[in-house]
Amino acid sequence: MEQRCEQARLATGGAFDARRPDGVWDPSGFVKGWAAERASRHLAALADHDWCVNAGGDVQVASPSGQPFRVGIEDPADRTRLLAVVERTAGAVATSGTAARGAHLYDPATGRPADMLAAVTVVGPSLREADVLATAAYVLGPGGLALVEAVDDYEAMLVGRDGAQRCTTGWAVTSSG
């Protein structure tokens, strides 16, 4: 686990780090996506069955039927409202932000809470990778789009503190709230 967390740190230029500001190793920011993805492998063995694994709002899906899952992306300012809905027949959707858990994401470069954005949602083939990228992009703030844009097969939507949305060039939604 420590090696995978270190790989994630290096891949994100240090924006994702399993070390807390006090220096204690805490892989919880990595484990959720990793564990849900591992659980998904068991479901993948069920041929001809659509499935969705939801881990605290981050999801991994597969739809051999071709019928897409519709995944709602909450408005971080009003969690009863959706900002967008993405359709996925395979892959993952992961969101990082403070709406559900409060200030818990830190900028490893400063040790201070990351607070430039309201939320970041990343879609792509792997929940583990999407979760790491969402956290790193959140920490980087508006510059987080460039990090996700540089990774093949992943796209992101950033929501600013003012509610403004910015997306990578390949981001596509099926409907808006």
Describe this protein's structure:
By secondary structure, the chain is an alpha+beta fold. The chain has helices at 2-11, 28-44, 127-140, 144-149; strands at residues 51-55, 58-62, 69-75, 78-88, 90-97, 117-124, 155-160, 165-167, 175-176. Helices cover 27% and strands 31% of the residues. Strands 1-2-5-6-7-8 form a 6-stranded antiparallel β-sheet. Strands 3-4-9 form a 3-stranded antiparallel β-sheet, with no helix packed on it. A hairpin with a 2-residue loop joins β1 (51-55) and β2. The longest helix is centred in the first third of the chain and has 17 residues, at 28-44. The model has no long low-confidence stretch (mean pLDDT 91).
- Stretches where pLDDT is under 50 for at least 5 consecutive residues are none
Q: If helices are DSSP runs of H or I spanning 4 or more residues, what is the number of helices?
A: 4
Q: What overall geometry do the principal axes of the alpha carbons give?
A: globular
| Average pLDDT metric | 91
Structural class: alpha+beta
Structural key phrases:
3-stranded antiparallel β-sheet, 6-stranded antiparallel β-sheet, alpha+beta, 4 helices, 177 residues
Summarize the helices and strands and which ones pair or pack.
Blueprint: H1 2-11, H2 28-44, E1 51-55, E2 58-62, E3 69-75, E4 78-88, E5 90-97, E6 117-124, H3 127-140, H4 144-149, E7 155-160, E8 165-167, E9 175-176
Antiparallel strand pairs: 1-2, 2-5, 3-4, 4-9, 5-6, 6-7, 7-8
Helix pairs in contact: 2-3
